[in-house]
């Protein structure tokens, strides 16, 4: 009799889960396992909002497993000794997991695989990307640094994959291992500020798939244009579900292609929707090939950029949504109340912080990582570096978003702003935190100090 431990991480689903699927096909008994191994010194550690989401996602996954006679085993601590102890206690012969791609986790998993090999077979799979980061390279075998040629190469390589089905059975072991109660893992805050935030969401695998199927026929065709208007329900809002693996990008592309076959008139919008999934793919690609970008700019010239030294006051006003620019403040308050922010607004608030206020992009990335329920390390780093002008783009630093013009263009009736800033018409609303024209010229002047070094 063979027993497999399926170590779940950012793949909290039963369908299209390669590690779980292959374990069920190979072994007689399955132990689904989640370890809270946050690598506390790592930037990949989840922020407070994401940990609240994780609590509910694990709860949903355990409910789904119990409905078919198994259950989720929860542990907390360093992964290797926990796995070794569990192997010894259960006689497990195999360990399966799906790969994660941040630098610290890659190093940890490589070490764990080597350490476990003498005692059991270890198998790892791709469950969170359309293709592995090392599969799509330029003709000279070097990685891409610009999205458009990367995406063209991805399409040529192929992005359509048939998702794996739900396993016919997930057989429980004769003796279930000990499991910690979910509440003891401490994912929820002691002061339950998360209750209002999570009221905006339905969590779990079924909710993720339902959200995709609701989006495709109602908003998919208009996605290319509607996605830019924060007051409209023009986006899929799948990002937190993708981050925790409640749905896979392969499932998203597969079902989008199926819908497109039935509704070819929606092609313009849905092709762009799949391209946005490609941006997530590109973020992981860059993180894998350039792991230093977690903390340092992809463009090495920005190692010498003269960021502001003292920015405590302006940072606090930005975080609280008190900058005096309505669309900025609306976005920051949406973030605080829902754990999410519309992507167009993310770019605007990031531009103000890094270019008009000269606060280092790492500071904004850290704030987003703590407050977003979809705080995916790869996408968060890519987005902040793209806006700051130091990441994957051809000539990005000259792109400085004017929040007033952005507001007029993408929230012309003020619907989004009124939703989050009820005091806008009163005397309580602050004056602008910075002069846009002067701060733009200052930012470009500082960029000119480093551009000749490249």
Shape, per Cα inertia axes = globular
Mean pLDDT: 94
User: Given the helix and strand composition, which structural class is it?
Assistant: alpha/beta
Q: Figure out the total of helices.
A: 19
**Radius of gyration from the CA trace?**
23 Å
Instruction: Tell me which CATH architecture of the largest domain applies here.
Output: Orthogonal Bundle
How many beta-strand elements? 5
Main CATH class of the largest domain: Mainly Alpha
| Percent of sequence in beta strands | 5-15%
The portion of residues assigned to helices is 40-55%
Oligomer: single chain
- Gap from first CA to last CA: 61 Å
Order of helices and strands: EHEHEHEHEHHHHHHHHHHHHHHH
Write the layout of secondary structure elements.
Layout: E1 3-8, H1 18-26, E2 29-36, H2 48-66, E3 73-76, H3 79-90, E4 94-98, H4 103-116, E5 121-125, H5 147-157, H6 194-198, H7 205-219, H8 223-226, H9 239-243, H10 249-262, H11 267-289, H12 312-320, H13 326-338, H14 343-356, H15 361-371, H16 377-388, H17 403-410, H18 415-420, H19 436-451
């Amino acid at each position: 009799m063979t027993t497999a431990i399926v170590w779940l991480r950012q793949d909290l689903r039963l369908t299209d889960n390669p590690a779980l699927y292959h374990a069920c096909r190979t072994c007689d008994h399955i132990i689904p396992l989640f370890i809270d191994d946050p690598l506390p010194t790592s930037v990949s550690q989840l922020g407070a909002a994401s940990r609240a989401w994780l609590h509910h996602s694990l709860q949903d996954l355990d409910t789904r497993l119990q409905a078919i006679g198994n259950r989720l085993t929860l542990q907390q601590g360093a992964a290797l000794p926990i796995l070794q102890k569990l192997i010894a206690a259960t006689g497990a012969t195999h360990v399966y997991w799906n790969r994660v791609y941040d630098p610290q986790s890659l190093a940890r998993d490589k070490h764990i695989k080597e350490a476990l090999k003498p005692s059991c077979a270890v198998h790892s799979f791709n469950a969170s990307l359309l293709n592995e980061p090392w599969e799509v390279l330029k003709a000279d075998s070097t990685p891409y640094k610009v999205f458009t040629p990367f995406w063209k190469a991805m399409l040529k390589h192929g992005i359509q994959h048939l998702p794996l089905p739900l396993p016919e059975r997930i057989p429980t072991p004769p003796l279930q291992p000990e499991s910690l109660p979910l509440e003891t893992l401490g994912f929820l805050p002691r002061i339950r500020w998360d209750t209002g935030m999570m009221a905006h969401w339905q969590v779990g695998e079924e909710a993720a798939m339902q959200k995709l199927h609701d989006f495709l026929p109602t908003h998919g065709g208009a996605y290319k244009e509607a996605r830019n208007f924060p007051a409209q329900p023009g986006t899929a809002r799948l990002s937190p579900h993708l981050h925790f693996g409640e749905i896979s990008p392969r499932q998203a592309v597969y079902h989008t292609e199926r819908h497109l076959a039935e509704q070819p008139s929606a092609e313009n919008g849905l092709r762009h929707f799949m391209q946005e999934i490609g941006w997530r793919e590109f973020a992981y690609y860059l993180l894998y090939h350039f792991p230093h970008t977690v903390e340092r700019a992809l463009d090495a010239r920005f190692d010498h950029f003269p960021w502001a030294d003292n920015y405590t006051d302006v940072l606090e006003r930005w975080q609280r949504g008190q900058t005096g620019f309505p669309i900025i403040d609306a976005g920051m308050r949406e973030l605080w109340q829902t754990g999410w922010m519309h992507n167009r607004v993310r770019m605007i608030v990031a531009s103000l912080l890094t270019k008009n206020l000269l606060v280092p992009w790492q500071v904004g990335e850290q704030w987003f990582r703590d407050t977003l329920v979809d705080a995916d390390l790869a996408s968060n780093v890519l987005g902040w570096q793209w806006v700051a002008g130091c990441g994957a783009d051809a000539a990005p630093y000259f792109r400085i978003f004017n929040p007033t013009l952005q507001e007029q263009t993408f929230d012309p009736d003020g619907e989004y702003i009124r939703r989050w800033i009820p005091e806008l018409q009163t005397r309580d609303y602050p004056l602008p935190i910075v002069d846009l024209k002067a701060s733009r010229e200052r930012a470009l002047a500082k960029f000119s100090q480093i551009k000749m070094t490249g």
